[in-house]
Amino acid sequence: MAEKISAAQVKLLREQTGAGMMDAKAALAETNGVVASAIELLRKKGVLKAGKKSDRITKQGLIHAYIHGEGRIGVLLEVNCETDFVARNEDFKGLVHDLALHIAASNPLYVSREEVPSVMVEKEKSIYLEQVQMNPPKADNIIEKIVEGKLEKFYEQICLLEQPFVKDSDVTVKELVTQKIATIGENIQVRRFTRYVLGE
């Protein structure tokens, strides 16, 4: 009988592979929770094809404009791919549209955590540290874990790739893009976006 798969195991496998939640969970269940075996299984199933493509140069793509709420919110988004052929692909166009819709709904400030200014990150950390210290006594390593957990939530709120996708909250935007890379067969990069709100 297969052992119960923990959320921590699923999270670890997803971080290591970029696989979706259901794929990761199924692979762990099939391999009795052995991460190395689950990675191998995902590779065999083709779920990890996306990883090999992530270093390829992306010079083609689309700039997409999306207007929401009777002209109250607008999004201008650039998503890159490797070839003009894929840029005209309906799957790719659908992804770009879904990403623009997500940006309109979820209001991210940055594409990825790497873009968040270090000054902002340090300020958030100090606020979280103060919050935790208001309710001691906790060992230093526990305080550190709580602060890191709050920081992860902060990234999830402001970074597009970290946010749960509006059409399927079990999948992050990054996982959605990774799935499309595997399906389409080319590297895809969310380059930049601007979100406009009427009167702001």
From TrEMBL:
A single Gene Ontology CC term: cytoplasm
Gene3D superfamilies: 1.10.286.20, DNA helicase RuvA subunit, C-terminal domain, Elongation factor Ts, dimerisation domain
Primary location group: cytoplasm
Keywords: Cytoplasm, Elongation factor, Protein biosynthesis
Keyword presence, Cytoplasm: yes
Name of a matching Pfam family: EF_TS
CDD domains per UniProt: UBA_EF-Ts (cd14275)
Record localization: Cytoplasm
GO molecular function, one term: translation elongation factor activity
InterPro entries for this protein: EF-Ts_dimer_sf (IPR036402), Transl_elong_EFTs/EF1B (IPR001816), Transl_elong_EFTs/EF1B_dimer (IPR014039), Transl_elong_Ts_CS (IPR018101), UBA-like_sf (IPR009060)
Spans annotated as Involved in Mg(2+) ion dislocation from EF-Tu: 83-86
Domain Translation elongation factor EFTs/EF1B dimerisation: 95-200
Stated role: Associates with the EF-Tu.GDP complex and induces the exchange of GDP to GTP. It remains bound to the aminoacyl-tRNA.EF-Tu.GTP complex up to the GTP hydrolysis stage on the ribosome.
The family this protein is said to belong to: Belongs to the EF-Ts family.
Record-given protein name: Elongation factor Ts
This protein's encoding gene: tsf
